[in-house]
Each structure stands twice: as C-alpha cells, then as structure tokens.
C-alpha cells in the first residue's frame, strides 16, 4: 500500500479539481505550473 499511496494522492487532487470550475490539480503538484509555494507535510502514525 505504501508504494501506491503517492499515485492516489495525485489522483484525489485531480478528482477534487475536476469537481469545480477554475481548479487545477497541476498547480498543486507541478513546479512548472505553480506549485512552487505549496508545502507538503507527511507523517506516519500508528
């Protein structure tokens, strides 16, 4: 599951963006499309 998780993060962002006009999933993930100011925080819990 850990190997597949990053792909699902991108997929969920794309689904969120497609739900409303004006949203762009690439602006969250691609530096060349505006993600330079996005901060990613990941943590593991048990």
| Low-confidence runs | none
Main pleated-sheet profile: none
Percent strand equals under 5%
Spatial gap, N to C terminus? 15 Å
Principal-axis shape equals: globular
State the order of secondary-structure elements, H for helix, E for strand: HH
Number of strands: 0
> Overall mean pLDDT score?
88
Number of domains: 1
Oligomer class: single chain
Q: Roughly what percent helix?
A: 25-40%
> What is the SS-derived class?
mainly alpha
- The radius of gyration computed from the alpha-carbon positions, rounded to a whole number of angstroms, is 12 Å
Question: Helical region count?
Answer: 2
Provide a descriptive summary of the structure in words.
- This protein is mainly α and 46 residues long.
- The protein has one domain.
- The chain has two helices and no strands.
- The longest helix has 14 residues.
- The radius of gyration is 12 Å and the shape is globular.
- The model has no long low-confidence stretch (mean pLDDT 88).
Q: What structural keywords apply?
A:
mainly alpha; 46 residues; 2 helices; single chain
């Amino acid at each position: 599951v850990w190997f597949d998780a990053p792909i699902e993060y991108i997929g969920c962002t794309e689904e969120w963006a497609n739900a409303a006009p004006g949203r762009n999933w690439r602006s969250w993930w691609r530096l060349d499309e505006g993600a330079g100011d996005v901060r990613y925080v990941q943590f593991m819990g048990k």
